[in-house]
Amino acid sequence: MQLTLQILANGLLLGGLYALLAVGLTLIFGVLRVVNFAHAEFMMLGMFGVYWVWRMTGLDPYLAVLVVTPLILLVGIVCDRLIIQRTIGAPEVTVVFATLGLSIFLQNAALMLWTADIRSVTTPYSAMVLTPFGLRVSVPMLISFAVAMLAAAGLWLFLSRTLYGKAVQAVAQNREAAALMGINVRRVYLWTFSVAVAAAGTMGGLIAPLFTVYPRVGMSYIVTVFVIVVLGGLGSVPGAVLAALLIGLIEAAAGFLFGAAWAELSYFLIFLAVLIARPQGFFGRRGAEVFAGR
Amino acid sequence: MSLGQPNGLRWSLVVALPVAVALLAIPAVVTDVFWLGLGITVLMWAALATAWNISAGLAGGLSLGHAAYFGVGAYTATLLFLRLGVSPWLGLLVGAALAGALGAAIGAITFRLRGPFFVLATLAFGIVVHIAAVNWRELTRGAAGLLLPFGGGAQNMLFAGIAPYWYIGLGLLALTLGVTVAIRRSQLGYYLVALREDEDAARALGVRVVRCKVAASAISAALTACGGAFYATYIQYIDPSSTTQFEISVQIALVAIVGGLGTTLGPALGAVVVVPLGEILRAWLGGGPALMLYALMLIVIVLAAPYGVLGLLQRLVARLRSGRGPRGAAQGSGGRA
Amino acid sequence: MLEVRGVTVDFHGLRAVDDASFRVDEGRIAGLIGPNGAGKTTLFNTVSGMIKPSAGSVRFEGRDLARLDPADRSRLGIGRTFQIVKPFGGLSVRDNVLVGALTRGQSVGEARRTAEATLERLDMARLADVRAASLPLALRKRLELARALATGPRLLLLDEIMGGLNPTEVNETLALIRALNAEGLTLLIIEHNMHAIMQIAETVLVLNQGRIIAQGPPAAVTRDPQVIAVYLGVPLEPA
Question: What is the tally of structural domains in chain B?
Answer without folding.
Answer: 1
